[in-house]
Amino acid sequence: MTRISLIKPDDWHLHLRSGEALKSIVGMSARQMGRAIIMPNLSSPVKSVRQAQAYRKEIMKALPTNSGFNPLMVLYLTDGTTPKEIESAGATPEIYAAKLYPAGVTTNSDDGVTNVTNIYPALEAMQKEEIPLLVHGEVTDPEVDVFDRESVFIEKVLDRVVKDFPGLKIVLEHITTKDAVDYVLRCKDNIAATITPHHLLANRNHMLVGGIKPHYYCLPVLKRHNPDQKALLKAAISGNPKFFLGTDSAPHDREKKESACGCAGIFSAHAAIELYAEVFDGEGSIERLEGFASIFGPDFYGLPHNREKITLEKSPWRVPDHYEFAGSKLTPFFAGAELSWKLLS
User: Fold this and answer.
1) Catalytic residue at 248?
2) Range list of H helices, 96-229
3) Is the CB of residue 178 less than 8 Å from the CB of residue 227?
4) Relative to the CA of 211, which of 10, 14, 76, 133 has its CA 20 to 30 Å away?
5) Distance between CA atoms of residues 234 and 226, nearest Å
6) What is the pLDDT along the chain (345 residues), one digit of tens a residue?
């Protein structure tokens, strides 16, 4: 197969930043995606309905003319998030979810949740309002090895929340381990997961062998090829609607990525659907890409499928070494490498 058409996909986990950084990259996602769940961990996190509405207006203003792209907004949960704020979010059509960042777990997460029991009143309100909980699933305990933090979070935190709020929709974001795949499969249909292109196409060898490569550094960190990356690949191509597309594309200035304390995040929005096509074609399952990219996510969120179609062609092209980014440069995933699939329309 050298050409495929599919329903225009959605990105169920996307970082757009704000200001000039937003203007530099939002068009890339708008070209490929119909909608995206927009992460709220800005330098000043999106904690309230008012802030979410203001951020959405900024995104809409930065979009290319007539793009049709629809940003779906998310609240950033803190220890102080009130049921009243959640009820207000439930009455606000622009808001589609709330995000749990354990405090200190990743970029701009210092205002996150210090103990999950602190947000139980908010979770109760979310269950009532039918607002999905999106989870960065890692513990921050310094005694826990960085490669084990997702698995420990599932055992110590997530499983408790799932049992205490059986009606709450939960998305375990950017899963990285076989343990996460197995857990989602064991749960009921209200528990789902997103999988990124970088966790499907890379493992910790890419980041560490032959020298530390900062542009492969992300959180959760890349894991082992076997069994973790293999389990993610199997889940993505399985046709199981519990697993769907979420890039976790996160742009960072190249100099900051390559500094003595490089920031976490991999930028993939420049070629998101092409990267996923690379994965599915490599696994001999290109015909299953549409379900993963365009159908399972909307179905989980209770939204209609996009009406527009896109076309991909098997036509090799080289990913640029960098993109312009708010007066600086941004190194994309697969920089300088060749991809086999190209988006035509």
Assistant:
1) yes
2) 120-129, 149-153, 159-164, 178-186, 197-201, 204-208
3) yes
4) 14
5) 12
6) 799 999 999 999 999 999 999 999 999 999 999 999 999 999 999 999 999 999 999 999 999 999 999 999 999 999 999 999 999 999 999 999 999 999 999 988 889 999 999 999 999 999 999 999 999 999 999 999 999 999 999 999 999 999 999 999 999 999 999 999 999 999 999 999 999 999 999 999 999 999 999 999 999 999 999 999 999 999 999 999 999 999 999 999 999 999 888 899 999 999 999 999 999 999 999 999 999 999 999 999 999 999 999 999 999 999 999 999 999 999 999 999 999 999 996
Q: Are strands 191-195 and 170-172 parallel, antiparallel or unpaired?
A: parallel
From the candidates 10, 11, 248, 281, give the one annotated as an active-site residue: 248
Element containing residue 316 per DSSP (H, E): strand 309-318
pTM score: 0.97
Q: Is 207 exposed, middle or buried (0-12, 13-18, 19+ CB in 10 A)?
A: middle
Q: To which residue do tokens 């976790």 refer?
A: 248
